Write the structure tokens for this entry.
Amino acid sequence: MAGNTIGSMFRVTTWGESHGKALGAIVDGCPAGLDLDESDLQEDLDRRKPSPSVSSTARNERDSVEILSGVFEGKTTGTPISMIIYNVDADSSSYDALKDVFRPGQGDITYLQKYGIRDWRGGGRASGRETAARVAAGAIASKLLAQSGMEVIAYTQAIGSIEIDRSRMTDPKSLRNVVRVNSLFCPDAQAAKAMEENIADVRNQGDSLGGVVEIIVNHCPAGLGEPIFDKMDADLAKALMSIGSVKAVEIGDGVAMSGSRGSQANDQMDKKGYLTNHAGGILAGITNGQQIVLRAYCKPIPSIAKPQRTIDSRGKEHRIEIRGRHDICVLPRIVPVCEAMVSIVLADHLLRQKAINE
Amino acid sequence: MAGNTIGSMFRVTTWGESHGKALGAIVDGCPAGLDLDESDLQEDLDRRKPSPSVSSTARNERDSVEILSGVFEGKTTGTPISMIIYNVDADSSSYDALKDVFRPGQGDITYLQKYGIRDWRGGGRASGRETAARVAAGAIASKLLAQSGMEVIAYTQAIGSIEIDRSRMTDPKSLRNVVRVNSLFCPDAQAAKAMEENIADVRNQGDSLGGVVEIIVNHCPAGLGEPIFDKMDADLAKALMSIGSVKAVEIGDGVAMSGSRGSQANDQMDKKGYLTNHAGGILAGITNGQQIVLRAYCKPIPSIAKPQRTIDSRGKEHRIEIRGRHDICVLPRIVPVCEAMVSIVLADHLLRQKAINE
Amino acid sequence: MAGNTIGSMFRVTTWGESHGKALGAIVDGCPAGLDLDESDLQEDLDRRKPSPSVSSTARNERDSVEILSGVFEGKTTGTPISMIIYNVDADSSSYDALKDVFRPGQGDITYLQKYGIRDWRGGGRASGRETAARVAAGAIASKLLAQSGMEVIAYTQAIGSIEIDRSRMTDPKSLRNVVRVNSLFCPDAQAAKAMEENIADVRNQGDSLGGVVEIIVNHCPAGLGEPIFDKMDADLAKALMSIGSVKAVEIGDGVAMSGSRGSQANDQMDKKGYLTNHAGGILAGITNGQQIVLRAYCKPIPSIAKPQRTIDSRGKEHRIEIRGRHDICVLPRIVPVCEAMVSIVLADHLLRQKAINE
Amino acid sequence: MAGNTIGSMFRVTTWGESHGKALGAIVDGCPAGLDLDESDLQEDLDRRKPSPSVSSTARNERDSVEILSGVFEGKTTGTPISMIIYNVDADSSSYDALKDVFRPGQGDITYLQKYGIRDWRGGGRASGRETAARVAAGAIASKLLAQSGMEVIAYTQAIGSIEIDRSRMTDPKSLRNVVRVNSLFCPDAQAAKAMEENIADVRNQGDSLGGVVEIIVNHCPAGLGEPIFDKMDADLAKALMSIGSVKAVEIGDGVAMSGSRGSQANDQMDKKGYLTNHAGGILAGITNGQQIVLRAYCKPIPSIAKPQRTIDSRGKEHRIEIRGRHDICVLPRIVPVCEAMVSIVLADHLLRQKAINE
């Protein structure tokens, strides 16, 4: 089974290459009667655009999304929603030189190993550009969740070694708005400033940065998630790890808990509810009604100007300096992508739970 | 879709409750002609048994596995392999008192929230006992991988705050054997000793510990993993996160890479191969032929003797002290479970790749 | 993907060989809170037992089913329901002679062609005995449907060239009871008598018979079925055709409609409802609230005493006369199997529709 | 799970409404390296166009297909192949009057019952126009099968009560070419002439006709099909029954065999092979290397000029005469659709078998 579909009841399939004609997504299983138009999707897509503080000479894509099916007179009809985003500013010429050379940290070599052929233009299917289709699909999921009062918010927790200070973090009520206007989607203005300076430095050095995205889900009902293998945390981990740059996923205080004791890690309860939320809102793979908290650890952008050693498809050694239109850090662009993936998983489990619940 | 099945070509379904009649697994999709008998499975199941250093008065289960179908004259036939493990030492009496009380950190409350009913005996379906069925299925996956020369080895990297020292770690060639005989499945004898002491201390304090399992895969061919959503790392993350105690999953140097730079994180190549392996053997979701390296971060066992605050199903507050047959730490018992889950995912992707590869 | 599972929300997996230790089924996705005990399943299994009028020296299997998981205190818990039926009267000795010889009309040759190995004892996995597991699973589906007021009734429409006369057919209200007591599950007593005589004749000639099962569904709500590919009729056709003997499936007046005109085939409506039901209760793949009507055309039992030409696995020619424990006609034993398969598909679509319906 | 996807390894998803912007299909799982360009698809799409002898004032759609992804330099890359067909001649005005009225025999009422909303323009998603997307996907499957020497040929066996005479049928070697040029895709020229006359008559009477499509598969290797539920015949039945007009599916001599005896129905063998092919090339759900033979029974086109009784969405009674752009018979246009569906199922099973076969 090829892997371009995620979800069982709310299913998302994406297609398209970085320098092909277009990208797109199909959402199959969205219930009928949901208000939907293109502007709902466009708003999220615009948030995925290159940020001036992070990108240098970025490719100029409007990422204008068009709905081709599944919506009639402003409402979903229950049939597949097909969305398309045409590529308008693809310039493959800068990739000509890299046609046979494997860029370190990229899928160039593994796509060739897997398929015996690869579309070398702009990373082909492995390009981060594919995530535009996810964001479009995620916007539909997000509208569906909103109907049930749920809200998914992702933001920058760290870029390079600079982390947000939670004591300075914007208050929960305004969080959603704050992290949407801020150019780094960062809820701590002081940290954001330091991050911008760091990015500028690193750009001058021809290098790149990684970071951490934190995602929270408010007002998620208890009971979502399907033991044993489709636990809510398992499906969220898969969804986030399916984003190219993400190399670790953490639920609640996952990493810290591994070094702690049961008396510290357990979330005790009194009649008013849980006293803590180390579990990140998920117990035994099922949501418990608390806020869901997740973290996606992203590796640095692999395309850097600094010289690197590599080989080409005939095994010949090269030193390459990758110039052209690249970001310095995958954050903040990846933030709405994480939000989309979490929304898709939640929408799927919301429908799955409805099926078995009286 | 209920979530008791994992895999698309090599599919594993588990069933059974902690104090029900039996547990079991079905493996569907195992190719015909593989040599298989019950002793192949039993060996791995025996490794999952309570370790004297970690468990106190553990339930005494032989975990004797029986193959009911799919094997004829010592070979798999291509039809579903059904395996059963009868529960022989279930004692539900100690759970009577906990029938209506939610144990902190356990799925008691969320199963009830999800299903409106729960089998309260020994954690029911949410019990770690379910993993015995995974280990039986994983042993079949492991035999299939061995046919292609692959080997999955899991071991204890940390218990509580005590980590192994990689400079003291046993050499790669003997690793598999060393971590199998060692009572904590720990490749650093000195750390193992400290871990045992720590476990003893914590037991005396009526508390419990978490830890980290590291899993490596040797000789995995390049090309396994299905972009976009069924990336190898995404499927591995899901599989590990589906284990009850696991709350974070890391591929290669995932967490550390988020704080590093591209020039440090990229694995450069020369004609002899990769110079480093920060990516943990997976690039763009596809294996690259290097060693796969993964880490599963496990929370402490939630059942502790120390008093905890909680409520019952009517909202009444309680202070509970959980005694009875519990481990102090989920490691080392979870180590073969992680090995099983990784083996299942790899076997699945091995078959998926064969389907599209000439 | 191996094919031993059917359904997406209400999923049934079967396993087991004719002469293996046991057979079984897992039902995953059954909602929690359904009253269920073994006697519910046993009743349907007993209807699948050999009928004295059709079988000669049938294998004597009690087909005693045991529930191993998923039920607690008489109610389903939402976790997988594992059912097992031990084989107690398997006698492989009569198959020794057929070990290498391909019985005409059986899967002996194709299983070997597919898997390179086969369990030759009693047909192995291809045996009609596998359908016992389907009937057990179908009984659960049937209970779920009954909660929504639905009822599935299958009966014998034809055996060999003898068909029921609809004018003599028992009245709808007593249909369910009548076809359950009758030894051929035939709703026309006169036809049943002729069928029994025919069966006796054919047995004396060392030959066998085919027949037609008709299945109706009462009180099915409108709206079930998922365009485009998972249309209700498409999923029903697959489910029925997955029964070994079934070689054609018809919805409503399917075959006759192909030779008719639109003015005859369309089901017109007035305010009281549909004037006819040529469509068999399904329009554009979605149930319309009318009675669902289906037909499964079954080939004759391939194992016959009359001499037949065949070859063995080395290509050597043989003439074989198959004696031993065989039925003369797959009806009536297949009738409850058809009922089970239709129930499973409907239960699945009932849950699927709940997921998307407010 | 919504039902717009078919297949597990070779997966086809279709989307689009009759009068929406466009229709399309995604093929996911096609192996890399297959030669493919748009003309390969266009040829099959052209065969699905209205035939002058059957259609009156048909909608004039070029059905021009564009490949948007998954093909690079003339070869498939292993990534999803997205295809789009823009609607250019949709005229919804004639449907205005039918906005609230349920056309007999159409999905108007059931789509509303299922979703609570419907796109009434031209039948929306339930329109036969959706099958254009299937044909495009089927053309890719067909190319994949051709690589393994397989060939799928569908043709008209009957229109209304006029059947082909097999003694007059064109010889096997030229069959593929003959049925492609012939305007009714009918392999018996004399029957074709009678069919054309019949169609003209029926058109004058404001009525419509059904018919039967026969599909054969040459050179299919033995061993394809996955017991138990995904038997080859089960999956083929589902695929054909998922076409709107098809109401019965038959494998080999399925209907006739139900009235026959084992000694007649079994396909005996000698060392040169099978002596007959009543089973239609499939034994126990697995292909046996003989020619696969299938039949799809199609109901008459429901849209007819003759007055019919019906109701509208408020339950008010109407008499309607449906004029506009309709065919008289779903054959021959459905012939390439049947060919496509059979090709898709075979391609899927070909890959599934490769996965488990050494």
Summary: The longest strand of chain A covers residues 151-159. Chain A has one domain: 5-357. The mean pLDDT of chain A is 94.
